[in-house]
Design a protein that fits this description.
By secondary structure, the chain is α+β, with helices and mostly antiparallel strands. Helix content is 27%, strand content 20%. It has a single domain, classed as Glutaredoxin, CATH 3.40.30. α1 packs parallel to α3.
Length: 116
């Protein structure tokens, strides 16, 4: 079985001070992309991180400086024609950070529509 990329997003609802909980609009945007293109779910492992830092599972893979969400950690090096779509590399792992960058990467690699 082929290795799958790992998408880290924040949990759907999280506290950040007093008042009602929040959600991450960037993670919600990617949830919408996944709803539009459910075939992507077969290429991913999705993990939901706590809002509080450090986000240990991400830090373990990418280091403390790269624990923002959403982030797509690639299972293997990207195709050469997609290398310019990768936003970073840490601890021997390539990653794509941010909803538009991730969606553009998926568009290029998996052939889905691209964000406008």
């Amino acid at each position: 079985m082929a290795k799958r990329d790992t998408l880290f997003m924040l949990k759907r609802s999280f506290p950040d001070g007093p008042g009602r909980p929040y959600y991450c609009p960037h993670c919600a945007e990617l949830s919408g992309v996944l709803a539009y293109f459910p075939e992507l779910l077969y290429t991913l492992d999705i993990h939901y991180a706590d809002f509080a830092r450090p986000r240990s599972e991400i830090v373990e893979l990418l280091g403390e400086a790269n624990q923002n969400c959403p982030v797509l950690v690639l299972a293997s090096p990207p195709p050469m024609d997609a290398i310019e779509l990768v936003t970073g590399q840490a601890n021997g792992k390539y990653f794509v950070n941010g909803p538009r960058a991730i969606a553009n990467y998926w568009s290029h690699v998996h052939g889905i529509s691209r964000p406008h």
